[in-house]
Amino acid sequence: MQITKLKIFGFKSFAQRTEINFPTKGLTAVVGPNGCGKSNITDAIRWVLGEQKAALLRMSKMQDVIFSGTEERAAMSLAEVSIVIDNSDGTLASEYSEVIVTRRVHRDGSGEYLINNQECRLRDVHALLFDSGLGSSTYSQMNADMIKAVLSDKADDRRVLFEEAAGVSKYRQQRKEAVRQMERVQMDMARVEDNLRATRRSVRQYETQAEKVDEYKKLTKRLRELDLSVSIDKFEDHKEGLNTLDTSSRRMEHEVETAKTRATELQTKIEEKKLDISEDENAYRELEREVQAATIELNNLNNDIVRLKDSISATEAASAKAQDEIERSEQKVGELTAEKERLEKENEALGNDSEMDEMSAILERERETLQVMRDKLDDLRTRSRELSNERLQAANALNALRSRFERADAETDMLQSNLDGWNSELETLRTQRDDALRAVEDIQQGMDTARTEIENLEEQKSVREERIESLRSEQSELTARIAELRNEEARLQSRIDVLESVASEGSDASRWLAENKSNLTQGLLSERISATPEYAHLVETALGDILDSVIVDNAGSLGEIVASLKNENVGQALMALTAKPRPAFGGNIEGNGVIGPMANFVTADEPTMAWLRGILSRYILVESLDAALELAERYGNDDLCFVSPDATVRTAGLVSTGTPTAGTLSRKNEIESAQQALAGVQGELSQKLSDEERVQDTLAEETQMLESLVDDIREKQNSLHGGDAAIAIQKNTVASCESRMATLDANCNSARARIEEAAQRKNSDAELAEAAQAAERAEGEYDRVNDELGEQEQLFRDKDEEVRELERSVLDKNAKLAQNTSRLKDIADQMDFLGNTIVNRKDEIAKNAEAMDKLRSDSEGIADQVQAKDSALREIESRRDLAREKYELVSGDIDEWQKEVNSLRDDMIEKMHDLNDIVRRREALQANVDRLKERILTDWEVNLEEPGDIERVEYSQPEADREIRELRVKIKELGPINVNVMEDYEDEKKRLEEVEKQFDDLDRARASLDRTITKLDDIARKRYLETFERIQKNFQFVFSKLFLNGETKMSLVEKLDENGKPLDILDADIEINVRPTGKKMRGIKALSGGEHALTATALLFAIYMEKPSPYCVLDEVDGPLDDANVGRFMALLREFSKQTLFIVVTHNKRTMAEADMLYGVTQEIKGISRIASVQLADATKFAI
Question: What is the rounded CA–CA span in Å between residue 565 and residue 532?
Fold first, then answer.
């Protein structure tokens, strides 16, 4: 950490901005002629680092550092100096590696400090530079004045430098401050002690009346604790009851709202479900129709499949028969071919023969017959196929009619069932609607009656409220007056107590005699007499101490009384011997302003009055001082006193005057007056309390009646609200019934229309009977044809066998030949026929195969349709079943919901009655709570809602009530209490405690300051001696550098005070002896000028070594030294410059030659300084 740069602007003679750069270490010399401003550079460094003493800157005040102007340049308004510090090693507590400290001062005396261009305080600068050696330290700035001071004949100047090095000056300043604080504390203790004595006397004066107030407070405290405990418990019980009622109320309100909501929801659901029923019913009926249509379509498809299967079966059978026929024909052809060949062979062998011709003719006829039978058989087969198709068509038509009629019957039955249910529901709905309308009329009539009753009740309520307001106003006035009377009663009673306590004072001896020697005395004179109030104070003035005298009617008792007073040592007593009264003055006093003898205005018992006449007959009351003086002069020969309001004049030449204090008689009169006023106040208070009780009773009665009216009004209003809700519910019921009835009427009309339409579609059973007969006829004809076909086939087979038998019968040749010829012809014909038959049958089989393929394809397509239709039917049936279940379920829920709605309405009405009852109970309980809160707030100023930290006591209810009554009686028996006396007493006691605490605090502060001063002395003494020892060693080291083999000796010389006692070592003188090279040990006065300067320099450097700094300014320190000493001095500086930057202001050429850097200060313009810098090497070249 080093100073690297100094910036000056407007400081003293540096009017221009001037910047001086310093090396990190070494010697920097500042040279220039006298008066050019060299020392202003050192002053700028001292000033920017926080110097606050203008004198050390060679100025009278701080604003004088601002450039004051010259003939050629005007004065400046501010001075500014900045010093740049290299903080790369982090020595300073700053985050910046380069720290710039700036100080400014303005003409108006204001100034500011900146750290890195951020405004700060002086203490911030001190904190930044603390313990860094860069402060405005004395040892970093050395000049010729310091050299003179360090070896001055004044020991104090030298001791200041040592104390500064040891840091003792800080402790000295702290000690001075502690001593000043000690003096202030002692003065405060004396003042507080006087105040303490006065406060203690005042506290003793309050203690008498405080006892009664203490008893009052104890009773009041116990009453407060007990009353509050009981009241808080009652309040909490009431609050708990209120919370319970609130909870019940909220629960019931919630239940009512829930029931209303539930009823509304159910009613809405009923309406919605009724609408849903219609939709569901329509959906269900539509789905049922879709099921029936799909069933019919599926049945038609199934019938088509059966028909196709029958056709396929018939076709297959026909093809099989055709195939059999082909096979038989082919077999027959084969047989005929074989037979033809055989016959042809036989014919070749046989010739013509007539028998042959005949047999041939028979055989031909049989064959023709057989052919006829064959043709008939073919016709029957064709007819059988036709009848099979007709039978299938008739069956399908019959099944279709039967399905259509079944669907129509089912739909008609369902519609009729719905129609019956809807008619029944319509009757129920009409009944509900009529009941609801009648209920609305009844409720409306009840609401009208309730409104009329509410109007009447509101009028009564207004009247009651006006009465209550009037009563409350009267009660407030009574309460305010009672409070005033109570305060007045307490004030008067307190005044009477004070007057009585003062009236009964007397002297200690008189009071002791009156109390302890009542057998010898008759009490105090002041207790036996009274005076006219108008002249009571004059009587007191006249009698004076005589009023405190003890009445003794027997002179023989005086000896015993005197002996008792001596033995008890209770003081002096004045006694009035009434047994021998002095004769009264018998003269007649006449003159202007004479009122009369004072005895005329005093009353007492006869013995006492006789004694008083002897005294008071000589006291004459007059109107003025002038009259008293004139009468005293006139009756100067008599022993008389003339008493006027201003003074008392005696004929003996004595005059007494002044403002008298209230005496016993005045106090007696004042007590009587106060008692009379107290009696009047108490009488009025009793009357007001009676009136208040009457008003409270009346108010309570009126309030109760008002609450009853409010309850009735609220009940009627609740009934109105309930009526509105009930009307709304009934109207909703009517609307829902009418809406449902309209829906049901529409449904009934639609159902009737659909039933009629179904009846019209059905027509009659004739169509079904006709279809059944047609199917039966087709079936009978089909059976008959098939039977006939079987018979014909059997006949054909028999005939064929006969023909063949004939053919075998022809045995002869001709017959055989003819037969063979005929047979050949037949065979040829048969073969042609069979060939045609085979061809026809094959064509038939092929056609049948195509027909069967088409039928199978149609059957498969229809089967796919059947499967799809079946799936669709099952889906529709499922949807229909769900729709039917939903319809049946919903239609079944409506009745249950309606029953629940009716139940909810009945429950709501019952809960509304219960809720009204709870509201009435809550309001009554709330009234009790409010009255309890108001009483506790009035009596104890406690808010039961927030009682705070109230001390609760244990109690049992009967005993607590009894104790509260007893406490109230005891407090009443105490009479009026002037609490202000107690408050004053408590305030005075607190004041006494505070004063005692102040005294104790001051005493502790005094002891603490005493310890602090002792500790500061010990620390300062220790540091001073340690520092002195180190400086002594440093001094020897530096001195030996300047004076080869030189020696030094420093010692502390104790001083004595005026009493010959040694002073503190801190006040000791510092004696310095040195031995320069080749000389003897001597004092500093015996040194030459150069030796003196070097010795002072050595001592300054010794002190500097104790508190080193990164820089040191030497301002013309080398002035008194010759060249030889300058050489030794510069050698010393060169050694120290390895760690410290030295800035040397000098005129010495040798010092300049030793410097590492030279700065020249010149004034080219008079009064304005400027800087010129030269490196040493350049300066050497320039010198050459």
Answer: 34
Report d(CA 65, CA 47) in Å as an integer.
9
Grouped pLDDT means (10 residues each) for the chain, 1184 residues: 88 89 83 85 87 79 87 88 88 86 90 91 82 62 70 66 71 80 83 77 69 77 82 82 84 80 77 67 71 73 72 74 74 74 69 60 76 79 74 69 65 75 82 82 83 84 82 82 78 65 54 73 78 79 76 80 77 78 82 85 85 84 87 84 86 72 63 80 84 80 76 74 71 78 83 76 62 76 76 77 69 57 68 73 78 78 78 78 69 71 78 78 82 80 77 79 82 70 73 84 86 85 84 86 83 77 77 84 77 80 77 80 79 79 84 83 85 57 34
* Tokens representing residue 492 in the block: 């008067």
Q: Can you give the pLDDT at residue 505?
A: 45
- Of the candidates 731, 706, 712, the residue with the CA atom closest to the CA atom of residue 450: 712
Whether 1039 contacts 1098, CB under 8 Å: yes
Confidence at residue 126, expressed as pLDDT on a 0 to 100 scale = 80
* Secondary structure letter of residue 1116 according to DSSP: S
Instruction: Single out the residue of 837, 758, 755, 991 nearest to residue 198, CA to CA.
Output: 991
- Provide the pLDDT for residue 403: 62
Number of neighbouring beta carbons within 10 Å of residue 1171: 20
Q: How many CB atoms lie within 10 A of CB 376?
A: 15
Question: Whole-angstrom Cα distance, residue 804 to residue 363?
Answer: 9
Pull the structure tokens for residue 513.
């005699």
Q: What is the 3-state secondary structure (H, E, C) of 822-888?
A: HHHHHHHHHHHHHHHHHHHHHHHHHHHHHHHHHHHHHHHHHHHHHHHHHHHHHHHHHHHHHHHHHHH
Closest C-alpha to 771, from 1116, 763, 317: 763
Question: What confidence score (pLDDT) does residue 1179 get?
Answer: 44
Q: Is 619 helix (H, G, I), strand (E, B) or coil?
A: strand
3-class SS of residue 73: coil
Task: Determine the Cα–Cα distance for residues 432 and 599; give it in Å rounded to an integer.
Answer: 112
Calpha distance 1064→1077 (Å, rounded): 35
Q: Cα separations (Å) of 1164 from 27, 1010, 1169?
A: 26, 62, 7
- Model's pTM, two decimal places? 0.36
Classify residue 206 as left (phi > 0), alpha (psi -120 to 50) or beta. Answer: alpha
SS3 1049: strand
Across the beta sheet with 118-120, the strand order is: 18-21, 2-9, 78-86, 98-106, 111-115, 118-120
Name residue 619's beta-bridge partners.
641
**Token pair belonging to 959:** 């005993």
Nearest CA to 612 out of 585, 650, 634 is that of 585
* CB of 346 closer than 8 Å to CB of 817: yes
Q: β-pairing, 2-9 with 78-86?
A: antiparallel
- The pLDDT value recorded for residue 349 is 61
Angle separating helix axes 1089-1106 and 155-166, nearest 10 degrees:
30
Contact assessment for residue 100 and residue 120, using Cβ atoms and an 8 Å cutoff: no
Residues 6+ apart with CB under 8 A from 548: 506, 507, 510, 524, 525, 526, 574, 664
Q: How far apart are CA 949 and CA 930, in angstroms?
A: 21
Q: Report the phi/psi class of residue 66: left, alpha or beta, with left for phi > 0 and alpha for psi in -120 to 50.
A: beta
